[in-house]
Amino acid sequence: MLGICKACGAVNRINANTALEKKPICGKCKVEVQLHDLTQEVDTEGFYKVLRNAKGPVVVDFWASWCGPCKVYGPVFQATSREYPNKVQFLKINTEEEQQLAANFGIRGIPATLIFENGKVKDSISGALNSDQLKQWINKSL
Ligand SMILES: [Zn+2]
What we know:
This protein is of the alpha/beta class and about 140 residues long. It has five helices and seven strands; from the N terminus they run E-E-H-E-H-E-H-E-H-E-E-H.
């Protein structure tokens, strides 16, 4: 999987299997690459870096801190990322901070989950899903 370094912006290739046990370190600046399970919170720049470099599907949760259902869904999304190590990239985007990006993808209600393949939106689903619903939805695109 890919891990964007928040300190220097480097795109790191990370082995998801070891990342769960040992905190990944940026190959360039040696700062910890922050992951939550196998989910990474990215800004617009980080999002496009992952999209350009990802070999497989990229699943993105668009959320906001004021959104109640997002708080329920966030941990579900994060935990589900552990089930697709090195296979699917899981990202979270804070729509309060990245408003233009959310607008570009026509995000109206949150949480909204989008799946990208080869840099393009393949499918989207709105609302807070449970883990089984999320997995079923992702599996349709694999
Ligand atoms: Zn770095």
